[in-house]
Amino acid sequence: MEKEALNNIRYFLAIGVSTGGPGALQKVIPAIPEDIPAAILISQHMPKGFTKTLADRLDKISKLSVKEGEDNEIIKEGTVYISPGDKNMAVEKSPGGVYRIKLNSETGKYRYRPSVDYMLESLSNTGHKGIIAVIMTGMGKDGSEGIVKIKEKNGGYIIAQDEKSCVVFGMPKAAIETGVVDSVAPLADISSEILKFIYKW
Q1: Active site residue 45
Q2: Which of 43, 45, 122, 128 does the annotation list as catalytic?
Q3: Would residue 65 show up in a list of annotated catalytic residues for this protein?
Q4: Quick check: 85 and 46 in contact, CB under 8 A?
Q5: What digits encode the pLDDT tens for the residues 102-125?
Q6: How many structural domains are present in the chain?
Q7: How far is CA 193 from CA 13, 70, 90, in A?
Q8: What's the CATH number where 71 sits?
Q9: Which of 115, 142, 189, 191 does the annotation list as catalytic?
Q10: Active site includes 183?
Q11: Per-residue pLDDT for 4 more than 60?
């Protein structure tokens, strides 16, 4: 069972978003098919309680199953895991090779909780080579360190939302300035950019 969970995760899609995120996610997630060979992780800057409402809303309007991530949960393809408000969500690979969600409340060097950098850095440490990271509308620069780690350690494919379609261009701008972004896309095209990479269209 655990081996099967590992073998079935061909891609990780990690999305970091802040101001304007709920509206942006309602454009991207429903456009992703239910049979996508990826597990999807979202860190949205949001207080405790609000992330559950967001997960429920996205679950209703999407083909994919959308839920808040739970500590120690085995990660599966075709499911969207949203970091609960006031928690950091990490991905851990067990010695047996199974990917699980780990939640904690540590702040440390991370300014936000949920932190996009925390999520991305944990993914980079798994050694997985099929990582797609998307940095969308939001204030600040959360995610810009994490995408550099992914590019250095895993290769991966990095997408940033373009300025025109952002509510706030801070996070995508900081991501683009790192020099590791592969594609800058308007909100309406982000889902197709993801699918193009996965399905090699």
Answers
A1: yes
A2: 45
A3: no
A4: yes
A5: 999 877 777 778 999 999 999 999
A6: 1
A7: 12, 28, 24
A8: 3.40.50.180
A9: 142
A10: no
A11: no
